Known about the structure:
binds guanosine-5'-triphosphate, about 475 residues, about 15% strand
Amino acid sequence: MPGEVITLQVGQCGNQVGLEYWNQMALDFGLAPDGTPQPYKSDELAFETDSQEFSQKPPSQREDVLESFFTLSEQNKYTPRSILIDLEPSVVTKATAKLPMFNPRNVHLSETGSGAANNWQHGYAYGRNHEEELTNLIDRELDKCDNCSAFQLMHSVAGGTGSGVGSLLLELLNDRYGSKKIASTFSVFPSNEKTSDVVVQPYNTMLTLRRLIDFGDATFVFDNDSLNTLGNMFIGSGLEKNLNCSTAFEGANKLISYVAAGITNPLRFPSYMYSSYESIISTVVPTPELKFLSSSIAPYSNIPGVVPAQNYVSLNEYDIILELLNDKYKLNSCKEPLKYISVLDYVIGSNLDQKEIRRGIIKAQQRVSFVPWAPHSIGVVNGKQSTFTKPKSKRLSGIQISNNTSIVHLFGKTVKQYDLLAKRAAYINFYTASNDASERQEVLDAFEECKESVRQTIDEYKACTKESYFGDDIMDEDML
Ligand SMILES: Nc1nc2c(ncn2[C@@H]2O[C@H](COP(=O)(O)OP(=O)(O)OP(=O)(O)O)[C@@H](O)[C@H]2O)c(=O)[nH]1
Ligand SMILES: [Mg+2]
């Protein structure tokens, strides 16, 4: 069995994304909201007869693997290996009411019930003051694992709780488990277009980014502007409306969750390749400095809630692989030309046509502009469709994760927004206790260190497009 994966969902965004993610997982595994498994539908039976009957296979003979993501209780209910953290109760309370499969003992809320007020510093300080409780929660979940391989943090980088407590958790995980377990993050970047978003978000983002750089192993980057645009582009008059969404962000979160669940497809429906979290991450992250990842989905027809008649186009394996190259499908879109360090495509469906996959890959490899030193190849995961969600007719879906230079632009934009505030030391008092001159300077210095770290990452992504990226180091060693 692949190692277990523990999810940490933190703050409003983290918990709302987390709720959609576990909804998607429950659909894939045929679990009722309280974690009760539906009778397992055998893959062969479903495919050969296309019948709605369920085979009576006992759970031990299931072809999918739930155990990496769920624990099984004595009452035969599956519980997500997930920890829900927020400083105010409303979002977590809603999540646990909608999906009672969450373990109520894995919930951490602040005693006062007030949030971190869009302030990274508040979130981080809260986390420091509650370090013991938070590590106890994680340790308790770890005790239920045979061989935990990864933690995945879901959060927004720009608020107070997901960013500040999230940063602290990454630091704790790094201190305690270092390189022994992967720490990946699903990190949501704020919208630049929506003016309602809070003015100090560039500060919070900068502070969080530094921790992602220092303590994370891989970050899947999503930005709210791209998510909104994608929703409108695909579905016409607004993602939320067409996905039957009841709250803002629900549509955006479905897209994030589809990727977050999709990337572990080969762990959940075991296959001979990419069968561990480590192998997936190491395919797309070549060095610890280059670990910010993009993702795309094409087409959208298999996302729960999307009405196939509206946007369903019949695509075969070849089409899907080429379709995934289109930058407009990226969940962190960037209009500049990109250089790729790595690309991993998931083609998900049954009875995949390997000839069409090979044809697609050859064509795609010619189209992608890779950095000179990277292997000019595209990995493919032959993903399996859950027997619970499999459409009657053959319908494929595709996900792409990639490492590319779009980060230069996204981080560059964040640095610019940060500079606008920092050069006037605007709102620095939000981050100080006494607000005297020396404390203000201390805070500004700490912010500048974070910016420096972000700048270095931008420079690394720029440098990696050069032929000499590895060459210079080899030269230096030769000269020693
Ligand atoms: N995609 C997406 N973005 C969200 C969601 N909720 C909030 N955001 C964005 O996240 C940022 C604010 O972060 P929140 O997650 O609300 O903040 P928090 O972590 O709860 O922290 P505090 O409320 O400040 O304690 C803003 O940029 C929002 O636009 C969500 O469910 N999905
Ligand atoms: Mg909040």
